[in-house]
Amino acid sequence: MQIQILKSKIHRVKVTQAELHYVGSITIDEALMEASNIIENEKVQIVNINNGERFETYVIKGARNSGTICLNGPAARKVQVGDIVIVIAYATMDFEEAKTWKPTLIFPNENNQIV
Predict the structure, then answer these.
(1) Residue 57: in which H helix or E strand, if any?
(2) Is the pLDDT reported for residue 51 higher than 90?
(3) What is the CATH number of the domain that holds 29?
(4) Is pLDDT at 14 greater than 90 in this prediction?
(5) What mean pLDDT do residues 32-43 have?
(6) How does pLDDT run across 58-107, given as a tens digit for each residue?
(7) What pTM was estimated for this model as a whole?
(8) What is the pLDDT of residue 23?
């Protein structure tokens, strides 16, 4: 049996931009991507702490150490600059493998930097 399980989480980062007129995605600082084990084009779920919105999109790489968290395209309507969001990625794996799996969780500071 295959199940979906938490793979990676960027916990409580601040939205720095929202660009409606864009193809669509979330731009994430490359350092945050690397630390959280999330790759470019990976599907992620975004959970907005401020308004309760939950939605899915894909990741594009932002400038390293910029602190960028930018929602692009239609996703820009689900956030406001300054909102706090959680970025979650899941993996599909065998049930037995999932029992011992350890996800990558990061907790950036208020400037979206790894401490």
Answers:
(1) strand 54-62
(2) yes
(3) 2.40.40.20
(4) yes
(5) 98
(6) 999 999 999 999 999 999 999 999 999 999 999 999 999 999 999 999 99
(7) 0.96
(8) 82
- When divided into structural domains, the chain yields a total of 1
Residues serving a catalytic function are: 25, 58
The overall average pLDDT reported for the chain is 97
d(CA 40, CA 26): 10
What span, in angstroms and rounded, lies between the C-alpha atoms of 111 and 109? Answer: 5
Q: Domain for residue 55, yes or no?
A: yes
Residue type for 32, please? L
For residue 110, give the DSSP letter: T
CB 84 within 8 A of CB 49: yes
Structural domain contains residue 107:
no
DSSP 82: T
Structural domain includes residue 8: yes
* C-alpha distance from residue 86 to each of 2, 78, 99 (Å): 25, 13, 23
In a domain, 82, yes or no: yes
Q: In a 3-state reduction of DSSP, which class is residue 16?
A: coil
User: Which residues have a Cβ under 8 Å from the Cβ of 24 and sit 6 or more positions away?
Assistant: 57, 72, 73, 74, 75
Domain span at residue 12 reads 2-95
